[in-house]
Specification:
Elements lengths: L7 H36 L7 H35 L3 H13 L5 H10 L19 H20 L5 H4 L12 E5 L4 E3 L4 E6 L7 E7 L4 E6 L4 E6 L6 E6 L8 E6 L3 E10 L9 E4 L12 E10 L5 E4 L6 E2 L3 E8 L8 E6 L6 E5 L9 E4 L5 E2 L2 E4 L1 E4 L6 E11 L10 E9 L5 E2 L5 E3 L9 E9 L10 E3 L3 E4 L3 H42 L6 H38 L4 H16 L3 H12 L6 H59 L6 H31 L4 H17 L1 H14 L2 H55 L8 H14 L2 H13 L1 H26 L3 H30 L9 H27 L8 H27 L4 H21 L5 H25 L27 H9 L6 H12 L14
Parallel strand pairs: 2-8
Antiparallel strand pairs: 1-3, 3-6, 4-5, 4-7, 7-8, 9-10, 9-11, 11-14, 12-13, 12-15, 15-16, 17-20, 18-19, 19-24, 20-23, 21-22, 21-25, 25-26, 25-27
Helix pairs in contact: 1-2, 2-5, 7-8, 7-11, 8-9, 8-10, 9-11, 10-11, 11-12, 11-15, 12-13, 12-14, 13-15, 14-15, 15-17, 15-19, 16-18, 16-19, 17-18, 18-19, 19-20, 19-23, 20-21, 20-23, 21-22, 22-23
């Protein structure tokens, strides 16, 4: 193709037009990329807020944008060059014609259309210039693809990071926030530094480090969107640290360590006024004396502080000057010594963490006044002193201190003061401080007769700050009630109680008399009750109600008396137990039913028949008679209490007298002994011995009046006769005379003899006191006997067999009845616990176990679990039989030297072994019940059946050996136990075949027979009326013949049931004697045993 030259002006114009077009295209492209960058930053701010990510993405966007512009320019110039190179003559001619025909202003528009619209060409068949139309979106695609590839690691799931994008950085911090706790950059020595870093960004793990300038590094790792907490404990110096990782490092933070403020030195310079004769002086910090400063003196305070101080104030100084540095110097003219006390207070740390209060004050002339109010309630267990404190002036912070010491009557050494810090309080002017915490002396260290000395003090400073002063009150002295006072109080309370009961007894008799008179009058007449009779009945009901109220007051009086005597700690437990018995007697005097009946009677007098009224009045007579008997028994108990209380006092006095006489003997042996003091002490001993003689006479007389004190009465009378024979009073007088005369040898001999006699008297009193304990054991033994009788009856009741039908309903009801019947046992156990806590604890454990088993049995019957219910009911019976055995053991222990009944050792062994076998049989029955319906004749079930069969055989063998070892002692049980052994053997054989309901019933029968055997043993070996007595030598001639009808059938059966208790010769004789139909037997000689 022919090339035509293009004029130079036209070529230049064309290229200039193309360049302008190129600039416009570049502007459009860059503007589009700018909008894309802004949108990405706004949309992905939370995910891509890290500066590193921002710079990376910005750079990628800029590079891709420049690449797109360059591509446009290269393509445009290549098109222009190609089209101008191959421009045809026709097109050039047409172009020149059009170019020269248009004006100067339209030439640019013409060229623009020429390049953009090829349709304007007049000759479409000739080659023409291809359009230079730029495709902006086509040029944006490469950059967009590059950006997407760069962002893909952050947009992909976290699990893909390590697998597909190994170039992803390990951590990316976006936003960092740090707090120091406490919220200040200034801490004190020993505080812990806590740094909290909050971050967002990468969902992967984040590793951060705290780098300190001292070389220590703290590292933490946490999931994304969490806070990291760094802790550096126990700071000892200021630190500088920064937070960061491999991609980022924060700025440095400084933690300044502050020192607490402390007064390093202070002094007061005093300039007295000129009209006085005083001279100036300086009061240094080390001087703790009080100042005597004339009024009107000019005083200068100078103080120096160390540590970090923000501000402070001298409180109490005139004008309360404020300072803001470590040194202060202030002047003041003072006219009252009290103004010398001041505080350097309100010193703030730069950390603003707390306020330090430092006292360096002086003491005013007027000390505080402390008062101790009288005691509210003085007992040896509750020693309380309410305090009243009055301060003379503003003392600021104060500390209340108490010191006490206890002087014991038995300790002659000087006791030490014991200090207690009571309270730190603040004062403001003259005040009375009432209601402060009550000071309480530990009660366990105070005994009757001790003297308590105490004093109170107030100090106006903390101990570590010098310059304070401690002011003490006078010593207060309080004497606790001694033995004499306590016994006098107990005797007075007992007398009041006796008088009250005597009055009630008289009122009860009067009520009985009135009821009898009213009943006799009503019997004489017929018809309805008249007005007079109704009034008399109403009065009778009112008197009965008043009597009930007085009885309730009597019960409360007895309770209060027991509480007071229990707190006195001077009465022995045996005497206190009598009060518990008295309370029990009064509780049994319950007339609620009679009172309700009389009230109902008084309301329905018009409708009742005379016969009903007479019956009601007879109930009144019976109740009044019962009250009279009950009160008579209570009065005897109170008199017994008084006797034991007074004798306890007598025993203690005899001990003190013997100890004092021994002390006199020891003092006589010293060379420097003071004869006058010894003689005076011996005269006091004479008075004590006379008092002991009078007391013993009164106690012997009081013991004779009691019904159940024959043993104590004889022993007291023996001790009284011995005192009169020894004539201790006269011997004490002779000893005093010998001491006064200076006859040391004779005085020492007489004092020795008197000391031995007093010791012998105290030993006799101690033995009599033991006899009271012996009576206590008899009371316990009697309660155990009653409880044993109840337990055996309960065991017999619990052994009833279930009916043939409706076992579920019967079992639930019967188990509940048995559970309710355990309440009397619990009451008896509590009564025994009051006297013997250890015995009561064992009984309570058995009763609780039996109650739980019965409750479970009741619930199982209700839930149609009959077999399980039977097992638990039998278990309760086993537990109660165990309690019976325990009761037998307790009674054997309690009887001791009392001569009470105790089971034979062989019988105890048999009972214990039988009880153990019954327990094992019950456990086996429970295992069989659990396996019922689960075991089979093959596999693991067969093995379990074999094991249970082996256990049944073992129980059978041990039962057989037990019966052989008992020999003839258990002949009455041999037949029944033989049947049990055969049944056990049959059950063991059937167990190998499987478990069914019949097998479970057979095992239950075996257990019931074993329990019955225990009950039979108990009935034969112990009865409530059986009580052994000490053997006595007697010679009696008896006729061994029996008359006809002298032996009842019951007695005959009892003798035959107890044949195993006799020897073979007796056993044969008795069998022959009582099995004959006719009891007319000739005389029979009794064979020798």
């Amino acid at each position: 193709m022919t090339r035509f030259p293009i004029p130079g002006y036209l070529r230049r114009f064309i290229f200039r037009t193309a360049l302008v077009r190129t600039y416009r295209l570049a502007a459009y492209t860059l503007f589009a990329w700018l909008i894309l960058i802004v949108a990405a930053v706004l949309f992905l701010n939370d995910q891509l807020s890290d500066l590193t990510v921002r710079y990376t993405l910005g750079g990628l966007v800029l590079i891709s944008g420049l690449a797109g512009v360059t591509a446009n320019l290269v393509r445009l110039f290549s098109l222009l060059h190609q089209d101008l190179k191959h421009l045809s003559p026709l097109r050039l001619e047409w172009l020149l014609a059009r170019f020269t025909s248009v004006g100067e202003d339209d030439r640019f528009r013409f060229l623009n259309r020429f390049f953009l619209s090829p349709a304007d060409c007049p000759d479409p068949h000739f080659p023409f210039i291809r359009p230079a139309k730029p495709d902006i979106f086509r040029f944006l695609l490469p950059g967009a693809a590059l950006i997407f590839l760069a962002m893909l690691p952050w947009l992909a799931p976290a699990g893909w990071n390590d697998l597909w994008f190994p170039w992803k950085p390990s951590t990316h911090l976006s936003r960092l926030k740090m707090d120091v706790i406490p919220g200040s950059t200034a801490l004190e020595r020993g505080d812990s530094l806590q740094i909290r870093v909050r971050y967002t960004g990468s969902p992967g793990p984040l590793n951060l480090q705290i780098r300190f300038e001292d070389g220590q590094v703290l590292t933490e790792k946490s999931p994304n969107n969490r806070d990291l907490v760094f802790i550096r404990p126990n700071l000892q110096q200021s630190v500088v640290y920064s937070v960061g990782n491999a991609w980022f490092q924060s700025e440095s933070y400084t933690i300044r360590l502050l020192d607490r403020p402390f007064v390093s030195g202070w002094k007061l310079t005093v300039h007295p006024p000129r009209y006085t004769q005083g001279r100036s002086f300086v009061h240094p910090q080390s001087d703790g004396n009080r100042l005597q400063i004339p009024e009107g003196s000019l005083v200068t305070l100078q103080a120096r502080f160390t540590g970090d101080i923000d501000s402070g104030m001298v409180k109490g100084w005139p004008g309360n000057p404020v300072f803001r540095s470590g040194d202060i110097s202030t002047n003041a003219t003072l006219f009252h010594p009290a103004q010398f006390r001041f505080l350097l207070t309100d010193i703030h740390h730069l950390s603003n963490r707390d306020t330090a209060r430092i006292e360096i004050g002086l003491i005013p002339d007027e000390p505080p006044v402390i008062q101790a109010a009288p005691l509210h309630a003085l007992t040896t267990r509750d020693f309380r002193i309410p305090l009243v404190v009055r301060l003379a002036d503003d003392y600021g912070l104060n500390r209340l201190i108490a010191e006490y010491r206890i002087r014991s009557v038995l300790d002659l050494m000087e006791p030490d003061w014991i200090r207690q810090d009571l309270q730190v309080f603040s004062s403001a002017g003259q005040q009375f401080y009432e209601g402060l915490p009550v000071w309480q002396v530990p009660g366990q260290s105070v005994f009757p007769g001790d003297v308590i000395e105490f004093r109170l003090g107030v100090t106006d400073h903390y101990p570590r700050i010098p310059g304070g002063h401690l002011v003490w009150t006078d010593v207060f002295t309080i004497k606790t009630p001694g033995t004499e006072e306590a016994f006098a109080q107990a005797d007075s309370l007992s007398n009041q109680l006796t008088e009250t009961m005597e009055e009630l007894r008289a009122e009860a008799k009067e009520l009985e008399k009135k009821a009898k008179q009213v009943a006799d009058d009503i019997k004489r007449r017929s018809g309805s009750l008249n007005f007079t009779e109704q009034n008399r009945l109403n009065d009778l009901a009112s008197e009965q109600k008043k009597l009930d109220e007085k009885m309730e007051n009597l019960k409360q009086q007895a309770d209060d008396q027991f509480t007071q005597l229990n707190q006195s700690q001077v009465l022995p437990p045996e005497t206190l137990q009598k009060y518990l018995e008295l309370q029990k007697l009064l509780e049994e005097t319950d007339n609620t039913r009679l009172r309700d009946m009389l009230e109902q009677l008084s309301k329905q007098l018009n409708t009742l028949d005379r016969r009903d009224v007479i019956n009601a009045l007879q109930s009144v007579e019976m109740t009044a008679e019962a009250i009279d008997k009950q009160l008579d028994k209570s009065i005897q108990t109170v008199k017994q209490l008084q006797l034991e209380q007074k004798f306890e006092e007598f025993t203690q006095k005899s001990l003190e007298t013997a100890m004092e006489q021994q002390s006199i003997r020891n003092e006589q042996s010293k060379p420097e002994a003071n004869e006058d003091k010894l003689a005076l002490r011996q005269d006091l001993q004479t008075s004590r011995i006379e008092d002991l003689e009078r007391t013993l006479d009164e106690l012997t007389k009081q013991a004779r009046e009691l019904k159940e004190s024959s043993t104590q009465t004889s022993k007291m009378d023996q001790a009284r006769q011995q005192m009169k024979q020894q004539d201790m009073t006269n011997l004490s007088r002779q000893t005093a005379e010998s001491i006064k005369k200076g006859d040391e040898e004779q005085a020492a001999e007489q004092s020795k003899k008197l000391s031995e006699q007093l010791q012998s008297l105290n030993q006799q009193a101690t033995d009599i006191q033991k006899s009271f304990k012996k009576n206590q054991n008899m009371v316990v033994l009697e309660k155990l006997r009653r409880l044993l009788t109840q337990a055996t009856q309960w065991s017999e009741l619990a052994g009833q067999k279930p009916p043939a039908s409706d076992v579920k309903k019967w079992g639930a009801s019967f188990s509940d009845q048995l559970l309710q019947s355990l309440k009397p046992f619990q009451d008896s156990s509590r009564a025994i616990s009051a006297m013997e806590p250890q015995l009561g604890l064992l009984l309570d454990r058995d009763l609780e176990s039996a109650a739980n088993q019965l409750a479970n049995a009741r619930d199982q019957y209700v839930n149609n679990q009959v077999s399980a219910g039977e097992q638990n009911r039998a278990g309760a019976r086993v537990t109660m039989n165990g309690m019976v055995y325990r009761l037998l053991t307790m009674m054997n222990t309690q009887s001791g030297n009392q001569g009470g009944a105790s089971p034979d050792s062989r019988e105890k062994g048999f009972f214990e072994e039988m009880r153990e076998l019954a327990n094992r049989q019950q456990q086996l029955n429970q295992q069989v019940l659990n396996e019922s319906g689960q075991s089979s004749s093959s596999g693991p079930g067969k093995e379990r059946l074999a094991q249970m069969a082996a256990q049944q055989q073992l129980i059978r063998q041990q039962l057989s050996e037990l019966m052989k070892q008992s020999g003839g002692q258990q002949q009455g049980l041999s037949g029944s136990m033989s049947a049990v052994e055969k049944e056990m053997e049959a059950v063991a054989e059937d167990l190998m075949k499987g478990i069914d309901s019949k097998l479970v019933e057979r095992q239950q029968k075996i257990l019931s027979r074993m329990l019955d055997s225990q009950k039979s043993t108990i009935e034969r070996e112990f009865e409530e009326r059986r009580e052994s007595q000490s053997a006595k030598q007697t010679n009696r001639m008896r006729d061994f013949t029996l008359k006809t009808g002298s032996v009842s059938p019951d007695q005959r059966g009892k003798i035959l049931r107890n044949l195993d208790r006799y020897q073979e010769s007796y056993r044969k004789l008795l069998i022959d004697y009582y099995t004959l139909p006719d009891l007319k037997r000739p005389d029979a000689a009794v064979p020798n045993r």
